[in-house]
Amino acid sequence: MPEGHSVHRIAGQFARHFVGSKCRISSPQGRFGDATQIDGRTIVRSYAVGKHLFLEFDTGDSLHVHLGIFGAWDFAGAMQLDDTVSAAVGRMGQTSGRGTVVGAHEDSLASIGAPRRTRLRMGEHDMVGVETGTFPPDPIGQVRVRILTADAVADLRGPTVCEVVSVVRVAEILDDLGPDPLVDRKGEERFLVRVKRTATPIGRALMNQKIVAGIGNVYRAEMLFRARLNPFLAANALPDESLRALWRDWVGLLKIGVKTGQMLTMDGLTPARKRAALANRDDRHWVYRRAGQPCRMCGTPIVLDIMEARKLYFCPTCQGVTA
DNA sequence: TGCCCATGGTAAT
DNA sequence: TTACCCTGGGCAG
User: Fold this and answer.
1) Do A210 and A164 belong together in one domain?
2) Which residue of the set A9, A51, A144, A146 is catalytic?
3) What Å value separates CA A66 and C1' B9?
4) Which residue in A185, A191, A192, A319 has its CB near the most CB atoms, within 10 A?
5) A322 CA, B8 C1': separation in Å?
6) What is d(CA A105, CA A128) in angstroms, rounded to the nearest whole number?
7) Nearest-angstrom CA–CA distance, A43 and A62
8) Model pLDDT for residues A261-288, shown as the tens digit of each residue
9) Are residues A187 and A58 located together in one domain of the fold?
10) Where are the alpha helices (DSSP H) in chain A?
């Protein structure tokens, strides 16, 4: 799934192309019964908290979406991609091999001077291509919700949560979430309070959305390595300074993720190693999905363990984990 | 073509 | 702790 950075990017995409527009809401797949509650209404606000997306309508109700592990949004229409999205997509240049989504390269993006039909997928992997068919394009795959304006369309596939909720319910959801660096100005203090309440291992605490919102399995493993922290240490046994450093690292990583659309966690590399890491999406992390491969710092084989039914990767030497 | 896997989360046991 | 939901990409055969 898209970790927190992706959801903020999606919220931005809605803010640019859908907020202020009257929307036709439908469910091509037929599994979103709430569509009639917001069909024909105007989106007045779009925002993300952690991995949760909220599209607020002029009725006061909001569309609440959580992508889960499989979900994704497809955007299409007469869109002007902003610099952020263009920069991220320019590096991908990958083809999907399905439907009208095609690979994009720097050239094709640079040619987008005037609005043109483009298709952009934001979710498990971002990708973009030039839409060659008519507008709106036919839905691809199992589209739970289609949001259509005069010149833009967003298709939602495979979400864990997709519901229309009241103002009161939105407040309840937000109350239940830990701080998100892009939402909470005093996030560091809130994080510290919440994380120090639990004796659970720090490797679990970071994944707990009630303690800090937006971190997923990739950022969890990478952040612990970056901090050289043992994932199994009790969260509330760590010194405040270590916890604050974790939070600050998350703030920086999230900003980079939102800017680039990628979970870039390996700073401090030589330019050549950085190019190599970026070129291969399977080899761009310190430890994540590198089980058995030598640690980039010390050469010890990266260990794969299961923590709370999720795969946890770490370097036993750098992170001080003894058997 | 069919199986496995994945950046989540919740409900049931 | 396990079962289950959601979808599609990758890969072995």
Assistant:
1) no
2) A51
3) 10
4) A191
5) 29
6) 9
7) 9
8) 889 999 877 777 777 666 666 678 999 9
9) no
10) 4-17, 35-38, 83-90, 106-110, 167-175, 187-195, 202-205, 217-226, 240-260, 271-279
Please indicate, yes or no, if residue A60 is contained in any of the structural domains.
Answer: yes
| A310 CA, C3 C1': Å apart | 15
Residue A24 has φ and ψ, to the nearest 5°, of -90, 125
Q: Which helix (H) or strand (E) holds A67?
A: none
Tokens 């996030």 -> residue: A187
Angle, CA of A289, A292 and A293, to the nearest 5°: 75
Give the structural domain span for A279.
Answer: 179-314
pTM confidence score? 0.88
- Nucleotide with the nearest C1' to A67 CA: B8
> How many folded domains does chain A comprise?
2
pLDDT in tens, A118-148: 456 676 555 555 555 788 999 988 999 999 9
* CA torsion through residues A251, A255, A258, A263, sign: negative
What whole-number distance in Å separates Cα of residue A4 and Cα of residue A227? 20
A323 in a structural domain:
no
Residue with tokens 């599209």: A55
Give the pair of three-digit tokens for residue A319: 């992170």
